[in-house]
Amino acid sequence: MKEIILTPKELPDVGLIAETITPDLFAGKSIGKIASLLIFAGNQRKKLGDFFEVAGKSADDASDTRIVIKGDITKVKMVGKGTKAGEIVIEGSAGMYVGEEMRGGKITVLGNVDSFAGQTMRGGELVIKGNAGDYLGAAYRGDWRGMRGGVILVEGNAGAETGLFMVGGKIKIKGNCGTFAGVHMKKGLIIIEGQTPERAGAEMTGGSIVVMGDTDILPTFAPVNEEKNPEIDGEKLKGTFQTYSGDHAERGAKGMLYKFV
Amino acid sequence: MQESLSKRCTVASDVVCPFCGTLCDDIEVDVKDNKITDVRHACRIGTAKFFSVLEEGRPTKPLIRKNGVMVETTVDTAVKKAAEILKKSIRPLLYGWSSTSCEAHAHGIAIAEEVGGVIDGTTSVCHGPSVLAIQDVGCPSCTLAEVKNRADLVIYWGCNPMHAHPRHLSRYTIYPRGYFRERGHQDRELIVIDVRKTDTAKIANKFIKVDYGRDYELLGAIRAAVNGNEINAEVVGGVTKEEIQKLAEKLKNCQFGVIFFGMGLTMTSAKHRNIDNAICLTKDLNRHTKFSIMPMRGHYNVTGFGEVLTWQTGYPYAVDFSTGYPRYNPGETSANDVLQRGEADAALIVASDPVAHFPRKSVEYLAKMPLIYIGPHHTPTSLLADVFIPSTFVGIETGGTAYRMDTVPLYAKKVVDGPKGVLSDEEILERIYKEIVRGK
Amino acid sequence: MASLIIKNGTVYDPANNVNGEKMDIYIKDGKIVEKAARGAKKIDCNGKIIMPGGVEIHSHIAGGKVNSGRLLRPEDHKKLVMPKTKLTRSGSGFSTPSTFMTGYLYSKLGYTTAMTPAMPPLMARHTHEELNDIPMLDKGSYPLTDGNWFIMRYLKDGDIEKAAAYAAWLLRSTKGFALKITNPGGTEAWGWGKNCKSLDDPVPYFDITPREIIKGLAEVNEMLGLPHSIHLQANNLGRLGNYETTIDTIKVPSGTKNKDRQTLHLTHVQFHSYGGDSWKNFESEAETVAKAVNKTDNAIIDTGNVTLDNTTTMTADGPMEYYLQSLTHFKWMNRDVELETAPGITPFIYSPKMSTAAIQWAIGLELGLLIKDPWKVLMTTDHPNGGPFTRYPRIISWLMSRPARDEMLEKVNAAAGKRSSLASIDREYDFNDIATVTRAGQARSLGLSETKGHLGIGAHGDVAVYDIDPDNMDPSKDFKGIEKAFSAAAYTIKGGEVLVRDGEIVKVTYGNTYWTNPHVDKSLEKEVLSDIEYNFKRYYSVNLANYPVQDKYVKNPIELKIDAQKVGA
To answer: Most C-beta atoms within 10 A of its C-beta, which of A193, B401, C544, C565?
Structure first.
């Protein structure tokens, strides 16, 4: 694995669109070429090098390329968009859309991420050590096919509408999760180790949501039975869970909610 | 215009009222010496809008901030200054648009594209959630005379048209006689669902009081009942299971039903998911009978802004041109988000008053940046402006296109001349655009 | 206006029986002329083919329904974007492109005219506002008359002259070009959540059948002497076994004749050529339908090809869109319009792996290949219903190349080969056929063949040049080259101005909007107007005075005045 180190300089308030920061575009490029990749600062077409010190060396192949971002990039959007292979490590907090449309590889954020992380993700691994914003692993506006594959792990809390229109893959949240987790979900698995206030699984027609902490269950979910140490999509859970089917606002809904008891 | 019997004034008829989304087009306006003397058929608020053109102290001269003080200037200078601010900005926000014409919208969009800015409408803070829901699940709807001619069941949910859209019931939904509803309101049932007994609820055949913030649960429970599923609670949102089941049967067994919803649904608790579930309920009901749903749009041309922006860019509000092509994601590209993240560095506000309506944090940012304001009145926003160009009233002093809440387009005509020297939003924006592209 | 000499190209101009001849084309003052004008600019087209500018007879590019489709699909818009350039505006949308982008994309394909086929009269202002924002093309739109209360009542009462006078008023009021009928009667039935399921299934409360509506409107159309025939979307679109309705429909207006053109344009017939009685035994009946078209002398069709894309379906056939979303459970818009019609919209994914989609793909091509006379089968995708118009180059390659089709048959669900006759068809279109189904035939069907769809003297200087050397290219073998060449015109010339060069926009213009204005007998018109007034007050939601489209809404209008005074006289 070869490493490219990006050290943020002073970042402007307008926010940056940096969809070019991905191993797929860095691979096989010289430091100079990488530094001249396009970044939008508001309506200004700028170069990556205008905002980051670029050091290290990229591999010929994305899968052997690791990008390490040394610092906070809360103002930077779309880092790792569409990543197919390789690795990104952000040693601080990141802005919106981290790992949007990601297909493979791994992105690790040591701090927090803003909303829309892992939007319409198809594969790979997105690890967030801090908290995530709203719409984690969600569909883009209007898309009825959201996250299709891959794994998202949040060690802190996540916001509302996590896994909106999810049709595959896994989302694990160690902390708490906002309302409407798994809304419109069709397939896949969401595990919330903390609590989620209410409306988990709203309008879901398939897939599974596990809640270890407190939650209010919608009146349109029906209790099914108690299960001990269930295994869901290859995840082995410990303990006893009350299961509910739903959301029966929908016709023929086959979603499952597991509530730790 | 025709001479009236007394020949004392001229009468403009078939005038479109530029106040709310009901867009009544049967207004008569008497005019004498270019002054409105009487307004007929319009509701109280509509009438007031027509008379507001006569308001004392209405601004007629452009103002520009010099050393912290607003001083009078010429239109040319104000336009130049506005263009300069927008050209210099690297993340301009262009906001408002709901109370002006589609012709003005088109110029606004052209400016936004030219300067690589973010353009957003007041939809963002009223029916934006409805748009998000429609994009997720669709929207079975109809034009308003479909309701007049066919509806035997009308529901108002989270809205109070008696106050906000006073002629909605009498023109389109409850009182008029329709082709298949010859006895008018006697042939229809009115149900109001709200958190309190509003004036609309008072005239309803049935009022269902829902607990504050529990509309989503109630909607889901009605859907479950309509779809033949169990409800796993005795009371949902303050309404008993039996009542919910009875309501579901009623909805399924009408001939033509319709749900109108307002900000009581879009701006509380589940917001866009309320609308999502209400639309899905409407879809479910179409398996049993005919059902439609419609947002009660507030400002008279908030619908039109969405239409123009959609056909020109593909998206109905919160469009970001910074990358050269339209990008859309409310939550990122919507006015309040762009402000509260501190991204915007200049703003053009047209035909709206965000300073009065936005959250404090957004207003604080607006106050910090160069601000251009175009509109007919002094408003809290105009007070913060660095450039203020007063404009005429569309639909009274200037003609223009507006779209009714059911997307029917109408031409709102001019009935009197505006104050001397005051241009229309359309003209002002066109001049700003030309100034921006001049020499490019 | 510019003068041009288009030199040395190989010309395909089927309306003038020019089939692949090397000749020069001269343009002066926007029109094709006999000889070169002094100082004319020369364009060398050696090794290239030349056709009249493309003419589109049926493409949903503007209006309330199209815009609802755009609103409904941000996820589609994100897929294809066009940044602003010095010359062009920005835009977005794969299946429902925004207006500016629509014009640019058509122009890049060599098209110079496009008609949007389904305008609810009450929404006409909206359609025109959008047409005004579509650059590069001449345009027009067809007001919908399928569920129109006036039409149904006049026809029911046998008052065909009043129906004609009303239709004339409607065309004038909407600034419309032709009469469109979508699922006749069915759209009114949809007001109650119902549909008309056959030609003889009466419309609830109106006591008239789809057959009577079609027959009556065909007569009305010819009484008024409109340029285009009635433009009909038959009942039962997309339903299993609907080919029977289609064949029946072709015969309905057979008593109505016109010496210059068809009296029935039956649109996107791919969606109407279905056999089988369950989706499991769904099969093509294109052969049967093609036979019926081959036999008739007064009906022509357009294909409505399926291109196997993720697209947006939109039609005024509300009950059909409802039915479709009930199969897919995708999001769904419905837009019933009072007293007039009932548009609906829902996305659809024609997955090549799906048997039905693969068969639908085959049916569109079968129709093109089995209908013998190319003048009777025009190429469309019913944009965006079967797929976006930007796929035309691909359809051209399928029509011109059996190997291209064979390659697809290998890739798509095997049902396409088994439950259609496509695999057994050898026919390959030549350039002349392509010019017919994409230009000449479309212009003739529209009744605009005097100035459009050909390169004879007096025609508009609308020309498309493609980078294809017919002497050194075998379209059957090099079908990928065909697709590529038709995707990016070497030149698109409109009114003598070069708008596209090497597939790039080099100039932006805004074309004309065509509308027809038939005048009937004054006293009849007066009588009908008083009916209109009476009913407007009671049943419409707008005042009559606010209904007609004001002149200002039509940018660059071309009004076709028609003397129909004999109607009612």
So the answer is: B401
